Structure formats: structure tokens, C-alpha cells
Amino acid sequence: MTTTPVSPDHPDGRPQDGADDDLLPYLRQALTLATANADAGQLPFAAVVVRDGQVLGTGVNTAGRDSDPIAHAEVEAVRDACRKLGGGDLTGAVVVSTCEPCAMCHTATLVAGAARIVYAAPKEYVPDFGGTPRPDLTRLQGILREAAPETVTHQPTDGAREPFDRYLAVLAAGGAGR
């Protein structure tokens, strides 16, 4: 009998679908990008698109700076990868993200053909940034997770909280902005 490992880092102890140690360097790369984005006063999220050990694209959240509510890190990484490849097919790719994806990012990843998203920080790590809660999006995220649970995996990663801590420090110093 096999058991699904439980992530001790996940606040609600949700099962971890499998170890993705081979993706740790890309998770660290995404965390570095997210921390730099936070230091620049932008939201602390980043993503890297990987296929066959090659980085196809990267992205950081530019929603505030660009006044673009869909400029999330995963979407930007998918866009970057598709531009570099000259097409919209990311079949077999993995989107490596600093944080559990929202419904929009999960959908964009699937639409582009990526196999799945692997993330470092569960959504419970994300501080309240003062936005308006969107229960409809939370429900949609739950539906996506239920319909395609194999497409999203939490990989506990050292330093997963760092981008959020840095962003809060920037906010406290009055440095966050658009």
C-alpha cells in the first residue's frame, strides 16, 4: 500500500501529490524573482516555465505597475515562454510558481497546454494585501482543483515565505507602489 506524503509546510496539512526535488532549482529561481519584485515595490509573485530541464520563460506579477489585473506571474511566464517559442503550445511544460495559483493562473496554464503547476507557498502564506475578497474566484479555484487535482502540486521549499516578508517590509517602509 502506498501513502501520499503530507506536506508539513502546508497549513491545512493537505496531501502533497509527489516530490518534485528536480524542480527545486526552478522554485528557488522563482523565489529569487519574486523577492526582487517585492523589493521593487511590486507584488511578491513569480513563475518559471520549464520543459526538459530548460527554462522557456519567466514572469513576475506586474498587475499593480501596469494597471492590468491579469498580469499575474504565471500568466506573464506563459506569455514569455510562448513569445520565445513563437507559438502558444507549452505541451509537457511545468509552470513553477512561488505560490499556489489562483483560478485564472491555473486556467491559463492549462489552456497553454502545460502539464501542471508546482508551487512553493500555499495560499495561506499570502498576507492580506487589502484587496477585495472574491468568493467567486475562490469557488472557481476549488472547482479547478477538484476537476484536475493532478495539475497542481505543492512542493515545500525553503524560503517560500521570503517574498511575502520582503513585500511587507517594503510596505512598512512606505516603498510599495505602482
UniProtKB/TrEMBL annotation:
Residues 1-21 are annotated as: Disordered. One of its GO terms (biological process) is purine nucleoside catabolic process. GO terms for molecular function: guanosine deaminase activity. Residues 21-144 form the CMP/dCMP-type deaminase domain. InterPro entries: CMP_dCMP_dom, Cytidine_deaminase-like. It comes from the Bacteria. This is tRNA(Arg) A34 adenosine deaminase TadA. It comes from Actinopolymorpha rutila.
